[in-house]
Here is the input.
Amino acid sequence: MIPDRDNQNQDKSINFINKMAEDKSPDVTFGKKWTIRAIIICVFLLGIVYFFAEAEKNPKLMFVQNVIKKTGIRSKFMSLMGSKNILVLGVDSNGRHSDPFDGTRSDTILILNIDRTGKSVNAVSIPRDSKVYLAGGKGVDKINAAHALGGPELTIRTIEETFGIEINHYIAVNNAAVKDLVEALGGIPIDVEKRMYYRDRTAGLNINLQPGYQILDPEQAEGYLRFRHDYNGDIGRIKRQQKFVKAVVKKIATAETMMKLPQLYDVLSKNIRTDMNLFDLSKLFNVAKNVKFEEIKVATLPGRPSQHSYISYWILDTDKTQEIIDRLIYRIEPKYDGEDLTVSLYYAPALTDKIDDIVEEINEAGFSVKSSSKKRISQSEVIAHSSKAAFSKIKPLRKRISELKNSQYIVDPDENLYPCTDFTIILAE
Here is the structure.
């Protein structure tokens, strides 16, 4: 008679359990007990990680997804994996002799996400007028009020509670330091995208910039960063700040700048507050040296302006804000369904003679160009709009189209600003 295999396995299981029970005698070593418990704990933790990972993909577990977002569980796991979020704040002095780090609103709010390899950086800007609940029961206000009421600590708590993002470190920069920094670096190369003119004698602001590539001196750099007197308003200024930060980091990483480190240290030590130690700062400097600037992805949290009485707010779009956080903070790549991705194309006038060949290259790479038009352009950009617009699909195009080689990656799910396509590709000369 052939033994019943299920019964055999059951007997073996019972024998194993009985053996475990017999081994629970006083002379069992602490090491054996600890090993068994450690295995159980590891399996339990792996089960939790797997459960939350599956919850992210399974629509039937929507309630778990909500828990993940509200409690920041995903952010905690991200921290364990080595990814870091650094909050960068730009603050202004309230007067000539006042402390710019005490009781002042933050003019710039930027989250830098650095992956565990230190070779990839994403940047998310939070509009300073964003309407939020301030942490600590401080009520509803613009997010930039958090720094005035509680410094970087309250700003961090507000961001963590509002967006579910864990902030690992902060760097607060006195905006007045920008002029000193530009002076120390010998100017910053920027392609000014448009004519900028504005004068405010009360604020001592005199902005007068012509379009085109140029080396900005300290006064010009301040004007470039503070200009917001056009239809883009504060959102346009945020984009210029992102562009300027990228140019500064690129300049700092040059060998020429290494000779100016003592001068830079003097400028930065007087105008920066941070919770990072020298070791952390040295790692951040290495990131600046090693990162590929064309791989940096940037975004500004989308929304709409709203006037409430005499106060103007930026009302965040919750769904699109979460989409940006998922892509740039948690680095969740969009799922590509195999269909052709649609493209709106803008190109510099100098590319008119070769634009037909460029369109053909884009179409052959699996895209569908829906529209193309001529426009004065300062830099090449690839803007992702839809939830399926994966930048991984763009990489092969960079090898085929030279004008895309150093293009800036931007995530902007606000399709109202552009034709309804998955991508907008902007080609400079």
